[in-house]
Amino acid sequence: MRIILDCDPGHDDAFAILLSVASKEIELLGVTTVVGNSYLENTTKNARTVLDLFDIDVPVFAGCDKPLFRNVIVAPDIHGKSGLEGAQLPPAKRPIERLHAVDFIAQTLEKYSDVVLVPTGPLTNIALFMIRYPHLIKRIALIVLMGGGIAFGNVTPAAEFNIFADPEAAKIVFQSGVPIVMAPLDVTHQVVVTEEEVRKMRLLGAKFDLLADLLVFFKSTYKRVFGIEGVPLHDPCTVMYLIHPEIFETKDYHVDVETKGELTYGQTVVDVWRTTGKTLNAKVMLRADRMRFFDLFFEKLSQLREA
Ligand code: BDR
Ligand code: CA
After folding, report:
1. How many other C-beta atoms are found inside a 10 Å radius of the C-beta of residue 236?
2. Tell me, what DSSP letter sits at residue 113?
């Protein structure tokens, strides 16, 4: 399965990248980056560092450095200043491709008709692609995204970070007619990393020690900001869904995005009881089998040991 991972690394984004590379079911055609957890320069550097760490030869394309209409917001409280604090990572060596992320997505979709887009950051690149290349929207086979929430947000009581950072972009994507699978906070908060997963990560070897350090940092910020012990591994839920959908329970809903609300700005409004009668536009993950998730996660990541 061919995918493009559109991300803002970001601790959990880094693991989404590695899980996709470690899964033989997936062909990662490129990593595209966007401003989100940190500024574009940092998220692009972090994506390259993560690939370099395991000598993975996948091109990295930088995308949008600001949301479609709004001011930039970043998340240093959660991911640190660089977006990927907590480990002594080597400097990024691989080049940044010359093509803009949005043009790379377009060229790839012109070439292949089975490409899955996997956004794990704000949806700015994907929306801009849709604005710029409307004739190619139909070429997207599927979008599997991390974003939004049914019951709660994490930036405001109503809004999750990826949607809050660029709600207009998210609205364009949800209204695009492309089949969407959504991993909201409701499911990602079932996939929490505890001390046990940190220990297991260290057992895999030296490079994984650095990854464990990242998890320790990520855990500590969640403890400080949200007061919870385990940290949700949000973004890898997307990739895991692609390789093992059976470990997730899903339901089809109509999902829209609030772009004006005084209290609800950036909320994904999920029509659970189908009160609007509007077309079901997203398959929403509701439950995950946590044990299976981590068994598979470590089974896959251990494939990177030879690299
Ligand atoms: C999302 O926001 C970022 O902090 C994470 O990388 C994830 O994509 C969770 O709200
Ligand atoms: Ca992310």
Report:
1. 26
2. S
For the CA of 161, the closest atom of ligand 1 is: 10
Catalytic residue annotation = 234
List beta partners, residue 5: 31, 118
Atom of ligand 1 nearest to the CA of 13: 6
Ligand nearest to the CA of 185: 1
CA distances (Å), origin 207, targets 53, 55, 90: 7, 11, 11
What pLDDT score does 306 carry?
65
Q: Residue 166: which domain range?
A: 2-306
CA 276 – ligand 2 centroid, Å: 30
Q: What percent of the chain has pLDDT over 70?
A: 99
Give the Å distance between the CA of 144 and the centre of ligand 2: 13
Nearest to 241 by CA among 307, 280, 187: 187
pTM over 0.90: yes
Residues 111-124: pLDDT tens digits? 999 999 999 999 99
What's the pLDDT at 89?
Answer: 93
Q: What is the number of structural domains in the chain?
A: 1
Name all residues whose Cβ lies below 6 A of ligand 1: 10, 12-13, 37, 75, 78, 120-121, 146, 154, 160-162, 234-235
CA of 41 to the centre of ligand 2 (A): 15
The residue to mutate among 12, 145, 166, 228, having the most atoms of ligand 1 within 8 angstroms of its beta carbon, is 12
CA distance 72 to 83: 14
What CATH number corresponds to the domain at position 172? 3.90.245.10
Task: State the angle between helix axes of 40-53 and 11-22 in degrees (0 to 180), rounded to the nearest 10.
Answer: 40
Query: By C-alpha distance, which of 56, 53, 9 is closest to 35?
Result: 9
Q: What is the per-residue pLDDT across 254-269, written as a single tens digit (0 to 9) for each?
A: 999 999 999 999 999 9
Residues 6+ apart with CB under 8 A from 94: 48, 51, 52, 60
3-state secondary structure of 278: coil
